[in-house]
């Protein structure tokens, strides 16, 4: 199988709640079980000791499939969903996989909204600009497309507070908070 032409970000399956763990189908459920999917468009991303595939669902979505070594080639597969806080995330991912396998419309990944993606992009742009020596005022001009502000206008500008917030959150994300992107937000 040919590797994808572009680099893909791959997380550890235990950290990424969209990863799907597959194993042998329990004997009691084998009845008239259909043959397992072949995952022909999948790209193997693990070493020889583990079978982890990156599978293209379509419409720009991909999912990691972790196949249990006890699953025999050609036998039906079952998904393993732990009954923990992340089970609902994994069920949502499984729903996207099943939709793709059965030719149905693939629901979107809802872990991040469009607004959250825009904020993340701005966070990284702010951090890159700051790391490259730009002032917060210069960063605000680029990010928010605003005119140059004098010192007093800058002190009173809402953009100043927004840039401070974006930089603070970017630092936290870079310090390890990025793993929160792999999960749905939950209320405790």
Strand content: 5-15%
Overall body shape: elongated
Mean pLDDT: 83
Q: From the structure provided, what is the oligomeric state, counting identical versus distinct chains?
A: single chain
Cross-sheet strand order for the largest sheet: 2-3-4-1-5
Low-confidence stretches: 1-5
Radius of gyration: 22 Å
- The ordered H/E elements are EEEEEHHHHH
How many strands, what sense, and barrel or not for the largest sheet?
Answer: 5 strands, mixed
SS-based class: alpha+beta
Tally of alpha and pi helices: 5
Percent helix range: 25-40%
Number of strands: 5
Distance between the termini: 43 Å
Key phrases:
188 residues; alpha+beta; five-stranded mixed sheet; 5 helices; elongated; disordered N terminus
Summarize it.
By secondary structure, this protein is of the alpha+beta class.
Layout: helices, strands, pairs:
Elements lengths: L19 E5 L18 E2 L6 E8 L2 E7 L9 E4 L6 H15 L12 H18 L4 H9 L6 H6 L1 H17 L14
Parallel strand pairs: 1-4
Antiparallel strand pairs: 1-5, 2-3, 3-4
Helix pairs in contact: 2-3, 2-5, 3-5
């Amino acid at each position: 199988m040919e590797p994808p032409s572009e680099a893909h970000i791959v997380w550890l399956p235990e950290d990424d709640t969209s990863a799907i763990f597959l194993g042998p189908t329990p004997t009691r459920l084998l009845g008239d079980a259909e043959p397992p999917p072949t995952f022909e468009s999948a790209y193997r991303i693990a070493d020889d000791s583990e079978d982890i595939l990156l599978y293209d669902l379509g419409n720009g979505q991909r999912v990691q499939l972790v196949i249990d070594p006890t699953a025999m080639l050609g036998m039906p597969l079952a998904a393993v969903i732990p009954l923990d806080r992340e089970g609902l995330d994994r069920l949502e991912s499984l729903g996207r996989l099943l939709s793709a396998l059965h030719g149905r419309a693939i629901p979107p990944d809802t872990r991040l909204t469009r607004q959250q993606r825009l904020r993340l992009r701005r966070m990284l742009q702010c951090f890159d600009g700051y790391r490259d020596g730009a002032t917060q005022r210069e960063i605000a001009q680029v990010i928010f497309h605003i005119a140059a502000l004098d010192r007093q206008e800058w002190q009173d500008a809402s953009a100043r507070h927004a840039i401070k917030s974006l930089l603070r959150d970017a630092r936290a994300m870079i310090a390890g908070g990025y793993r929160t992107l792999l999960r749905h937000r939950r209320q405790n």
